[in-house]
Design goal:
By secondary structure, the protein is of the alpha+beta class. The chain has helices at residues 2-32, 155-161, 167-174; strands at 34-38, 53-57, 71-75, 88-95, 100-103, 110-112, 115-116, 133-136, 141-145, 176-177, 181-190, 196-197. The chain is 22% helix and 26% strand. A hairpin with a 6-residue loop joins strand 5 and strand 6 (110-112). It is globular, with a radius of gyration of 22 Å. The protein starts with a helix and ends in a 12-residue tail after the last strand.
């Protein structure tokens, strides 16, 4: 009985330490490894629906840069008019640093580095872009677009609305710094009936560097 009582007292003494360690581990994981985000807008439909919850890998881009076709969370540039304190956006990477993006080919598809891109994820009935353009993504920047192109405040919209008077300024207003990326959204985990991995569409594999 004495050993049993001693074990119980030891457990209750150690419990606060165990809880403290668990909290620290949870905070570290959230800060540096994984984080959950919910989808507050229709800009990525139907890949992501309103109020879907996604899991974001915050560690992956410590080892490599974002790749075309990945769905990523990023801090909105100031010119995108986020509220005080910044705002997390979620879009798809369409262009990486140095990519030449052209809209459009004769089938109204985006072209990246001279290769046409099939985009089956674009919201039904949407054009892949609201206007023609021919741009080169600046160094250290990303061209981001929502899958629901006509309901997305993305790089093309901010390119069109930029107040800059030269092309370089317009591209800086429209693109997202690589160092503003929070992480890669790699799975929908809620609601359960929509749970799925957010993989890169096969069509991006044909795009040359």
């Amino acid at each position: 009985m004495t050993d049993e009582k001693t074990a119980k007292r030891s457990f209750w003494r150690e419990l606060p330490v165990l809880l403290g360690v668990a909290i620290v581990v949870a905070v570290l994981v959230r800060s540096f490894v994984l984080q959950t985000f919910f989808i507050p807008s229709p800009s990525m439909q139907h890949t992501l629906e309103l109020w879907d919850k996604v899991l974001v890998n915050k560690l992956v881009y410590n080892f490599r840069e974002p790749r075309r076709g990945e769905v990523i969370v990023f801090k909105a540039p100031g010119v995108w008019n986020p509220p005080p304190g910044g705002e997390d956006f979620i879009k798809r990477v369409i262009g990486r640093p140095g990519d030449n993006l052209v809209c459009c080919d004769d089938q109204r598809r985006l072209m990246i580095n001279g290769r046409s891109l099939d985009e089956p994820y674009v919201y039904p009935g949407n054009q892949v872009a609201a206007r023609d353009f021919d741009i080169t993504v600046p160094a250290g920047r990303l061209w981001m677009m929502g899958d629901h192109r006509e309901a997305s405040g993305d790089s093309l919209q901010h390119y069109e609305q930029s107040a800059a008077t030269d092309e370089a300024g317009k591209l800086l207003d429209a693109t997202v710094p690589v160092d503003a990326v929070v992480g890669r959204a790699f799975t929908i985990f809620w609601p359960l009936d929509r749970a799925t991995l957010l993989s890169v569409p096969e069509s991006f594999s044909a795009i040359p560097e």
